[in-house]
Write a structure and sequence with these properties.
By secondary structure, the chain is mainly beta. The chain is built from one helix and ten strands, in the order E-E-E-E-E-E-E-E-E-E-H. Helix content is 14%, strand content 38%. It has a five-stranded mixed β-sheet with strand order 3-2-1-5-8, with no helix packed on it. It has a five-stranded mixed β-sheet with strand order 4-10-9-6-7.
Length: 155
């Protein structure tokens, strides 16, 4: 991929594959913008959730801007795969693969790890929620406010 295009990215997200979950680290927004994303178990699903595909923390991205994803792994080879978007990129330990994502429409994109990366591997789900830029900014501000409250309580 042409590195010159990466300067167009408005948001950088580090995607880290682990044996049973993904970590999403929104670089540049603060240390507090880092989430682990685990599959939701069957007894915790809400009406309308997709079994084996729903997660507790979705990757939230704004629509209509370039989003740079930096994909790596901490343990074995994983693959971050969004079939509806037509995107697949391997997560390799010690290697940083990056790509620009551009979404034209608001929506929810479901995917999964498409590598057999361990005994009992359950195809770690990937859920990307694409929202309007204003909604994304409000979400970030709400999380920052919650983080500030928790930090003050800990002092």
């Amino acid at each position: 991929m042409d590195d010159a295009k990466l300067k167009d990215a408005r948001l950088n997200v580090k995607v880290i594959g682990h044996q049973w979950f993904w970590t999403y680290d929104y670089s540049g927004l603060g240390d507090w913008m880092k989430f682990d994303s685990y599959m939701v178990r069957g007894n915790s699903l809400n009406l309308g959730d997709l079994r084996l595909l729903e997660v507790d923390n979705r990757l939230v991205l704004p629509v209509g801007v370039y989003n740079c994803v930096n994909i790596t792994s901490t343990d074995v080879i994983h693959s971050w795969f969004l079939p509806r978007y037509g995107f697949k990129l391997d997560a390799l330990p010690g290697i940083n693969n990056r790509h620009l994502l551009w979404f034209d429409n608001v929506g929810v994109y479901y995917g999964m790890c498409s590598e057999i990366c361990g005994a009992g591997h359950r195809y770690i789900p990937v859920v990307v929620e694409v929202v309007p830029v204003g909604v994304f900014c409000d979400w970030v501000e709400e999380l920052r406010h919650e983080y500030d409250i928790i930090t003050r309580l800990g002092d």
